[in-house]
UniProtKB/TrEMBL annotation:
Domain NAD-dependent epimerase/dehydratase residue range list: 17-284
Gene name as annotated: LOC107476486
Gene3D superfamilies associated with the record: NAD(P)-binding Rossmann-like Domain
InterPro entries, A to Z: Epimerase_deHydtase, Lipid_A_modif_metabolic_enz, NAD(P)-bd_dom_sf
SUPFAM superfamilies cross-referenced by the UniProt entry: NAD(P)-binding Rossmann-fold domains (SSF51735)
Protein name: UDP-D-apiose/UDP-D-xylose synthase 2-like
High-level lineage: Eukaryota, Viridiplantae, Streptophyta, Embryophyta, Tracheophyta
Amino acid sequence: MAQRVDLDGKPVAAMSICMIGGGGFIGSHLCEKLMAETSHKAVVVDVSSEKINHLLRESNPWSSRIEFHHMNIKNDSRLETLIKASDLTINLAAICTPADYNTRPLDTIFSNFIDAIPVIKYCTENNKRLIHFSTCEVYGKTIGSFLPEEFRKDPKYYMLKEDVSPCIFGPVEKQRWSYACAKQMTDRLIYAEHAENGLKFTIVRPYNWIGPRMDFIPGVDGPCDGVPRVLACFSNNLLRGEPLKLVDGGRSQRTFLYIKDAIEAVLLMIDNPERANGQIFNVGNPDNEVSVKELAELMIQVYAKVAGVPSSSLSTLDVSSEEFYGKGYDDSDRRIPDMTIITRQLGWKPKTPLDKLLDDTLQYQHQTYSSAIKKVLSKPSN
């Protein structure tokens, strides 16, 4: 493999990367990228290896550069040893499905704040660099949502900037914000360790990264009563021929970024510490903004082509947020990332339009799950 160079033309030395939560959606794509395009070694820590098993097989030519440690970081003393032995730690571990924020707020807070504390501590004490995955949800509601109607069309009131935008959450009884609050506290702890003790950090704020291997399909590779994030929820409805459920009419607007574009950004952060250290990066695609209702309609059109079924056989259904998520749900109205900092520091811009990323993703969902869904649906109900 040719010698890699960073954005300033300097050679990139091979390093050992401890990837906490590296067996999930983002981690699996990052591992593939690291194995295929770098000489870095991945030390993956997670409670499941299912999404990276194809990389761990001895027959895989990269198997010598990736190792898996089955570990729950809540109570395993091996974590510090692995961080200490690595050059870089990437923390991806999180409970990040909105259905859990209401029903499992304690687990959400522990997973996203309390469990991150030792990771930050070990990186600081051992002088190790940390790339931590936060969320765009830390911004909460936009200023625009509180303004009179005549001001609401101005995009400046919806653009979220890492070093300017305030974090606006709902009241405590709206437990949906437990995730955002926990993530914000972790961001603040990391920044405090940097300011007081010199921690070398990069914070990543993803904006709805989607693609193959995202979340799970209930009753196939996840619990029957599980509620994944919106893309997998809609995929599950499409695979089963059920109406796509639009929470509160699907009015909320989101931007969506293809996972392959996102991983390009993360690799730039890994290979360019001088440009990435001390930075908080929005990583999203402001050009791919749609309402959740529009997303459902697009997915219906794409899936109809992928599965060879008439789009008229697929539909949507409005449901209340309390009916779908339970009491205590609340949400932000829009999340549009300002891309100034990541473009300036790393020269990164998203590439993939929404129709292309939906086509790739739904092709994968159909090929991976359609047969299993047919078997589930063919079983007699009790």
